[in-house]
Amino acid sequence: MFARWWRAAARTEPQQERDGGVAMLAALLIIMIFGALSVLMLGVVLSQVTPTQFSEKNTRTIYAAEAGVEVTLSRIRTATGAPDFTGKIYGDPRKLPCTLTGVVDTTGSGTTYTVNVQYFADDPAGQTASWRTGHAFACSASNGTGTVLPSYAYITSRGQAVSSARVAASEADRGISMIYQFETTTKNVKGGRIYSWNDTVGGTQLCLRADSATAGSSVSYRPQATCGTSALEDLELWVYDTDYSIKLASSTLTATTLCLTTEGTAIKLRSCATPNYTQQWSWHQSGNATWVGQTAAIADSGQCLGSGRTTGTPLDGDKLQIGTCANQAAWGSFSPDPAVGPGAASANTHQIVNYLEFGRCFDVTDTDVNKAFMISYPCKQDPPAAAQLYWNHKWFYNEPLVGTVAAPQLIYVYNASGVQYCLKTPTTQTNPNLLGVGIGWYPTLTSSCNISDTSQQWTRSMATGSKTTSWTFRDSSGRCIGAAGDKYKSNWTALVVSACDGSTAQKWNAPADNVEAEVGNYLEETG
């Protein structure tokens, strides 16, 4: 019995040894598999560290770029000036940003943005970088675009974030660009100050100020040093309107508009009535810088607005009266702001009204056809309907239909003797050296009118779809005439030809238009 058990046990021992070996082998195999999988998973994890860090930085920089755009739009929209006398607030191009930098989240986060802004007259959408460089307005940190009013802003914003050891500093930074179209209106708000005549640089002038904004009030001369504050705008701003009346600007916003009215030799503010010859004024035809009263037959009365003096300079408190007409003299002549308005001047009266200086017109300087430059001068007026408008403000040319051009053509006047003189573009810069007029490209007149002469060929454009060329007069070289030169007699802007830039100084007889603000053309910047 024992022997049989021993033999059975002896027979089972080798089998147990074989089972243990298999188990050991399986365990080692499992360890090897899991080890390999661990190594594989470690490789996968390690391989994803760089893309993850890249993606994380990539996300932060695009959000930083977007933050830069939002900050820039806020700066543009808040680049405003003080309210005008109507309470309306307009943008101030001198406050527009050129570049911006900032931090996203908190200081020290390392996430920042850098923004560059370019300003244009025409839509930069779809244009090349070289086009944008060549057409962008000059912009400075201290003065924005100056007096140039842009229609579009091209904003480029780039985000930056701190890099990890696996992502280079130059990698994963993103940028975006977009275009902002300004809400604009080209409607000129009439209302400017009327100063006494002075043709000396830095000379003393006085402004006209109503004693009160009520009917029956007188108007007084006040020292220039006390003029020009916003607190006095309601009493100092005047409008020379299309019905030839001179109105207190602030009263045009009330139920009773007040006009300068003749009462004997006195001038009073009275409710405006049309027609009323005692409230109508012509801007003197011979260039005396005076406003002439009218008779019941609507003809010049021979008496003008003035201080009541016949020599010297008005004194503080002198009352505006009607009496002897002056000839460019402080006691009875005036230098109105352009914002006082053009009266009835327009293409219908053969006058060319500037849109920046919208109370001033293309003028043959001093009625002298041999003058070395033309000027922008207060638009001459003669009620009714410019019947006897003086020749040096009457220009003849073909006014094309809206959306078209008329070219080439002559632009000309007829002098007092009926001789035709044609406008001629300059071929060289000149220096007339007359009372501050410096070196410039000044158009002049010639009696040798010849349409074959390229210097006499002009293109008149209406609304062309381009801000740069609409409502312009361009010479054969493509340059525009603008009221952008130095001052003549310290008052009147000399006219020059220069590269067309879309500025209002180069617009003539242009109507008002309104454009709503718009944001669009978002693109991701590469490179």
Question: CATH topology of the largest domain, anyone?
Answer: Trefoil (Acidic Fibroblast Growth Factor, subunit A)
| Poorly predicted segments | 1-11
Please state the overall shape, judged from the principal axes of the Cα atoms. elongated
Work out the helix count.
3
Largest sheet features: 5 strands, antiparallel
Spatial order of strands in the largest sheet? 1-2-3-4-29
Counted up, domains total 3
**Helix percentage range:** 10-25%
User: What is the correct CATH architecture of the largest domain?
Assistant: Trefoil
What is the number of strand segments? Answer: 29
General description of the model:
The protein has 527 residues and is α+β, with helices and mostly antiparallel strands. It folds into 3 domains: 143 residues, no CATH class; 152 residues, Trefoil (Acidic Fibroblast Growth Factor, subunit A), CATH 2.80.10; 165 residues, Trefoil (Acidic Fibroblast Growth Factor, subunit A). It is 17% helix and 27% strand. It contains 3 helices and 29 strands. Strands 1-2-3-4-29 form a 5-stranded antiparallel β-sheet. It is elongated, with a radius of gyration of 38 Å. The protein starts with a helix and ends with a strand. 39% of the residues are buried.
Q: Tags for this entry?
A:
527 residues, alpha+beta, Trefoil (Acidic Fibroblast Growth Factor, subunit A), 3 domains, five-stranded antiparallel beta sheet, four-stranded antiparallel beta sheet, 3 helices, 29 strands, disordered N terminus
